[in-house]
Give the backbone structure.
Amino acid sequence: MKWITRVPERIKEAHELVSTPKDSLTWHTIENGYSYCNSISNYKDVEQRWVMFFSEAAYSRECKTLDKNIKKEFSEQTKAWWHLSNRVFECEADCLSEIEKLKKKLKYHTVTARVEEIKKHTRPGRPKPGETAKIVGYQVSFELLKNEEKYEKAREKKGRFILATNQLDDSKLSSAAVLKEYKAQSGTERGFKFIKDDTFQVDSVFLKKPHRIEALMMVMTLCLMVYGVSEYELRQSLLEANQTVPSQTKKEIQNPSMKWIYFLFRSINELHISVGDHTKKIVINMNHLLKRIVSHFGKRAQAIYLNST
């Protein structure tokens, strides 16, 4: 069986590869702002091809998050060190111990901390000639700065991720195809999310016999198929007609989810009016947007929603 999976950075080999300086690697550029480099791994005694990708969009996004986290850390650590500098310690050892505790919390910064003696004369008034002040406590003075070396190392790793496959033949599965196939898995994952959605209320159905469980799964899979086909057909029709529908955020889009479309139709009802032996059926609460959506599902849908009988 051939597989593709993402390699977590908690694996030492993967962490070292992601942390490798850019100039030390051979990069190949592909479309949509991606580039990649190949390597062979024998992780867990399984020979596999590791493809490390770099995304310009992800790099920009992750660097912004990094800068935000650095500013947050600087603000928090400045407060913590300020509070420490205002404490008076009875002995130098306690002071040094608190400094080491705070230093361990620094991720992207470095601190220069000094222990300073607090000296006072024991007697009030002007000190006598030759009388020296005694040490009554210790305080910390500090200077907090961004650690440029750690910052650059952190930036070096941004925008990178590793995909692994046991298909070693690049002619059968190119590195660009590895990325494409991995991204396509999201569609399958959305399908499982659909099946596990509360809409089905599966947790309220208790089945013991295997054939009944199989039957329920068959019904749910058919629902997923109808959902997927409907979503695909609607998106294709909107694209061909160069039309859009408003999203949840009021933004005009051409790729709505069917879940959102179903939500838009939540207020649609069929009203039956009976006069003697005659009954008239009227679909109510249809607006311009819903009529436009129905028009993309063909004549059968239009006959149901747009024609009252």
Remarks:
- The longest helix spans residues 210-241.
- DSSP finds nine helices and eleven strands in the chain.
